[in-house]
Amino acid sequence: MDIKTLHDADIIGISTAKSAFDTLATAFGQHIESWQHDVVDRLGHSEWTGTAAGHANTRISNLGTELQSAKQELGLVSRALQDAYDGFAAAQAHLISALDDAKTHKLTVAADGGITWDKDPNSPNFAGNDAENQAKQIQARITAALNEADHADQTINTRLGHLATNASNGTGLDSATAKADTDAANALEQVPAAGTDPNSVKAWWNGLTDEQQHRMILNHPDQIGNLDGIPAAARNDANRTNLKNLIQDRNRQLNDLGPAPKQYLGYVKGEPVTNPEYEKWKAKHDALKEKLDGFQSIQDRLDGKKDGGLGGPNSDPPLLLLGIGDQGQGRAIVSWGDPDKARNVSSLVPGLNSTMAGVGGGDAMTAKRIYDSAVSSAGKNETPSVASVFWLGYDAPQLDGDSVAAKDRAVAGGADYNKFLAGLRATHEGAPAHMTAQGHSYGSLVVGQATQHPGGLAADDIILVGSPGVGVDKASQLGVGADHVYVGAAKNDPVANAPSPGMLGGLGELIYEQINHPGKQAWFGTDPASEDFGGQRFSVADGTITDSHDDYFGKHGAGGDSLPNIGKIVSGHGNAITRQDPR
Fold this sequence. Notes:
Strand order of the largest sheet: 5-6-8-7-9-10-11-14
Distance between the termini: 65 Å
Radius of gyration: 31 Å
Number of domains: 2
Shape: globular
């Protein structure tokens, strides 16, 4: 495909052909109806019996099936032509827009796509000091438009060629073939179900034209934005749309609640009697308000209303919204930098008390500090290339219950985290990225559970900080090799030093734990910071009982070597960490 061919293409002819096939399919359908009425129904009401009648009825029934299959195939030709028109129209529009912008910036585009401009500041045709940058951007847009047209051309050629072959050799009259062809066409218009293998999702997405992808983002932002295997840029576009929808929906629901009912029905012996209707109203109101505040916090971050504009439209690195949803306590995944392009990708799973509101606030800055540390840890001859993800894709335990003492949330979260990293691996461009899975506090248990799925976890290194245990007894059981499991545990961290359930349950349970799980015990298995676990312990500050658990990522500025060590690991230089003896 070249510029002139696409620019001058008369795509109206495709639409005309599509209309012609619509007319043909309609007429064919009418013939089938006539056949049914004039032949099949009349024969069914006749009194013709015997061997010949049986053979005739069988043949007529088969013929009816063949006619219905042929009608389906005709309809598929029409759908293929419509998709071709949409794809070529989008590519042509993108090309014309790029060429118009080239004229506006006084750039000359050659037939082969090369761009030149007048560099003389005294010339009336001087393109300006930013001409080179503008030329690069426009050339990229032209190339993208031509590639888009090539993709549409190849796709439609394959689909029409298949249908033409079916028509010429008679396979299109087979009901199974017609069904398979229909299912394939429907697959181009239907979003894969949540939980679909990310590699299959990526193949489906790549099979769509740019226009089809755009329509999917517009029409199904909640599904596309949270589907592992969709590229990060597309997820970000979809999730930003869905976030606005979620905010509008929560505001509408709050308005629909109306004013609060009377709080008290009266007094009995001087004590207020609570109105049950008020309690119901307040429960609904508070739940909606909590979600709304979380969504709005993330929107404010994306709009650049926090921390001097960090995360806003002009933020460097860009902040991508890779997940957003109202399931459970809410879901939110953000990334500083594009994980599809970065050479080093970190994904942090938070723990106790993590919320959506936190993702928009301090938690986003936790991921940013990891990003900055990894960039500064790059080698002298390396160009820093990092993406730092904060993954709140599960219901983190809260202090208002005993969920932190159970594994169920980690098991469910681990399955989703495993799928998320598999999606990042599937969509990454070029050579595979160096991927680091990080778990803080209860989040380390989520990471541990994620490693236990078939095929393991799509990570090269694992970092565990402030961990109450990861559900296994040895670092070697995490699937990346014990020398790639890095552990940070502050001396005064109350979570990393919490006693195991066996130590709390009396001598009998303690003996049971030591027999079945030898080694220093944490709440969920062997203490990751212990020598028995076998990981690589890196240096962190001792901290205090009140701040050490939250300071592994430099939140309070007293984490010592912790954040620099994490940056070294994320940037692929784990061999350069400052080490600390296991306990």
